[in-house]
Each structure stands twice: as structure tokens, then as C-alpha cells.
Amino acid sequence: MSSVTAKNPFHFVTQTSLVELTGLRARELYELLAHLKEVPGSVIYHHTHHFLRQHQFLSPEPPNDFAYWVTNVLQEDRLGEQLAAIDTVRFPSLKLLREALVGTIERYLAKGRSTRVAPEGEEFHFMKARSFVLETPYVVSTLEEFLEAVQKVSLNSLYHHIFEARLRLEKGTNDFSKWLETELGETALAKTIARLDPYTQTLDGLRQKIVRLVRVRLGERPQEVAHAS
């Protein structure tokens, strides 16, 4: 049975990114903290997400750059663990993620922890990523068409619709869930996809979970319609 046809089709896009140096650097925690409070959100986003984009086929759960530098360069292991433990998926905006990073460092410093200075050449360099969004040929209006397209689009496309949409563009959820609910009325499916933790699996693994969920939904559709009648 054919599914509902959306009034507004879903346009899959993809993206490419250009990483730029900001010219800001930190040698110790106080400098790191001061810059964290002032840098654009694109800097926060880059240092907490670039691993996901650059190493899409590797094991998930990468550390953010701040945690890595604090642990491996400053050798402040306790703070590094606290920064690494910040659950990025809990934050609906970069503003709140920034506040969590800043608050963690401030609490650590408030306890009078000794801080070290990075060796020359190992300072933390703040960078940002400029994203360029590109169209793809995939435009869908039904759940069946969505299922077919989501299996074909690139991982960069998945990254944009899942990560950039939710946090960097501050849409509150991923693009897929928003469209499925508002255009197709697939509220339960949309919420299930939104609950998937994209930070604890590879993008390809996430794609496979979305595909399975949609396939199950399409398989249930005839039975649900018959039951409703």
C-alpha cells in the first residue's frame, strides 16, 4: 500500500567543509577558558564534531578536542575525563554545549587545581569549519521514496541532516524526524529516529538503523490500516 504523499517534499542535500584557523591559541587552562567564552559557535562545533565527519567509518565515541588536549598535552587527567564525559547529544544548542564546557573548566579551576603550561608547539589552536551546502538529485514525497533515497545518499548528506541540522543549525531535532512528523504524520517513527544516539555509532551504522525502522513501519502499515477500519 502506498504511503501518504507529503505536500512539501524532502530535499536531500550534502555538504563540504573548509577548516580555517582563527588565529587564537591557548597555552594553559585560563587562556582556553577565556577563548571558549568568546569564540563563535562554529568553533565549538568544529572541535566537538570534526572527528565524526573526518572518520565516518571508524569506531564511534570520539573524544572532543578540548578533552584530548587537556589530557594529553596539559596532563590534567581528571579535567580531561570530565570534559570527555560531557554528553553532546543532550544539548539542543551550541550555546548550552559551550556553557557545559565552560562550567566544567571553571569548577575545576575553582578548586585550586594546579594547571600546567603546554610545551612550545603544542598549544591549543582554535579552528572553525565553514560548511558549503550542495543539492543532491534526491527529492522524496513518500515514506517509500524516503527509504530508497536514504540508502543511496552519501555519508556527508547524512551528517548534514542529522548533526548539523540538530545542533549547529539549532533545529532541535534532525531533519528526517522533523519532516516525517510534520509532512507525513509519522510521529512515532520520527520520535524513534530522534531517540537514536548518533554519537555512539558510525554514520553507516546509523543509516542501517534508520532503514530498518522505516522498513518495519512500511511492513506494519497494511495491518494497521486494516485494524483501523
What would you note in describing this structure?
This protein has 229 residues and is an alpha+beta fold. It has two domains: 10-14 and 132-228, no CATH class; 17-127, no CATH class. The chain has helices at 29-38, 41-54, 65-72, 77-84, 94-110, 143-150, 155-168, 175-184, 187-195, 203-228, and strands at residues 10-26, 124-140. A two-stranded antiparallel ribbon has the order 1-2. Helix 6 (143-150) runs antiparallel to helix 10 and helix 8 packs antiparallel against helix 9 (187-195). The longest helix is centred in the C-terminal third of the chain and has 26 residues, at 203-228. The radius of gyration is 21 Å and the shape is elongated. The protein starts with 9 loop residues before the first strand and ends with a helix.
